[in-house]
Amino acid sequence: MKKKHNGVVSIWKFIFALPILLHHFYAINDVTGEKHQLFICGAIAVDFFFLVSGCLLAKKVASEERRQDDRPLYLATKDFIFGKIKGFYPYLLFSFLIFLGISLVLHNRTSWELLGGFVDLTLLQMAGLPNLGYVGGAWFLSSMIIGMLVIYPLAKKYKKNFSLVIAPLIVIFLGGYMIKTAPSLRDAKAWIIFTTVGNAKAIFELAAGCIVYEISEWLKTISFTKIGKFALSLIGTLSFAFVISVNLLKNDVRSFDWLFIMCLMLGVSIAFSEQTLFFNLADNRLFFFLEKVSAPLFLNNFVFIKITNEFAPFCQMAWADKCKIVFVGAILLSVMELYIIDGIQAVWRKIKKPIKGIFIVDKTI
After folding, report:
1. % the chain with pLDDT above 90
2. Are 79 and 71 in contact (CB under 8 A)?
3. 298: nearest Cα among 82, 83, 185, 135
4. Angle in degrees, CA 194, 197, 202, rounded to 5
5. Is the pLDDT of residue 65 over 50?
6. What's the burial of 288, exposed, middle or buried (CB within 10 Å: 0-12/13-18/19+)?
7. Residue-level pLDDT at 1
8. Cα gap 4→280, rounded to integer Å
9. Could you give the residue ranges of the DSSP H alpha helices within the chain?
């Protein structure tokens, strides 16, 4: 029997990409000189993506354990990390090239400044490397990879002992420390002790995602009635709706970050449980497509912010009109990007082997 795609997770990925887009409206210039704080706390949606990534990491480790994977830990870690990078790197490169093109047109950059922009492509900017930050969302990918380099080997080595013992300790101590002392969980590039908030948050929330995976697997073992599934679906939906609505409508909510993270953990656990009333209905191509759009949308939102801020035809437009252009433009560009990258990858698959043969001897012959 064909395994169903979890469209519940898919549609929530797309929905949570939108608050991040709205959050970045603060960077849109207003001709009046006013600094807008509307949707400023929408960055809490990033925490959802870290939790989902942690859950998928734990799911991958469990799958490898069932297959009795006996690869050395360093090799398994390398394969896992490079697999993740391979999945998102085309979108990062696409957005970077657009930003680079805009910067070359709009600014007289020195060669050293342009070189600094390429740090985005190394995924090391959150390790402290200085960069121009061409791609606004690239910090998340950097922190995610750094966090996975910590969490995956531990989860792989200790398995359930990690998810049920070590991960809760990370959540309690590292998470508690951050919520208590960090200026804001949303200020990803601020430094705390020896690393950035983004990196510490990645480690803390990837570990929390491993706990979420165990909860979702436990929920799968329960035989819910239709009323039970309805209640579960309602709880999950309300958990997400509460986090999104409060963080979009209110600006002074940072003291409740602990509550938001707990709600997100609850919602993600339910979404991955496959026990929601609309799990079968959500298994469709539209939701899967929207999930794919969420990745480039996360990276592309600053493209139109830069355009509306710095291209003359848009500079004198009203702030609200600029917001509309950024919102619609980011979504349309992300959809177009999917088809462009799919086409490039199809061509690459056809020419990869002969190009590789120019430089590397095929030992299988």
Report:
1. 63
2. yes
3. 135
4. 105
5. yes
6. middle
7. 47
8. 8
9. 7-23, 45-66, 73-106, 111-117, 138-158, 160-161, 167-170, 176-181, 197-220, 226-249, 257-272, 285-310, 312-315, 319-359
| Four-residue CA torsion sign, 266, 170, 83, 362 | negative
d(CA 237, CA 327): 24
Could you give the CA distance from residue 141 to residue 164 in angstroms, rounded to a whole number? 26
Query: What average pLDDT does the structure give for the chain?
Result: 90
pLDDT digits (tens, 9 = 90+) for 117-150: 788 889 988 988 876 667 878 899 999 999 999 9
Kindly state the tokens that stand for 344: 């490039």
**How many residues are listed for the chain in this entry?**
365
Q: Would you list the DSSP string of 110-147?
A: -HHHHHHHGGGGGT-GGGT-----SSTTHHHHHHHHHH
Residue 101 CA neighbour count, 13 Å, CB half: 8
- Tell me how far apart the alpha carbons of residues 313 and 317 are, in angstroms, rounded to a whole number: 8
Token couple for 138 = 């690239």
Cα 312–Cα 315–Cα 317 angle in degrees, nearest 5: 125
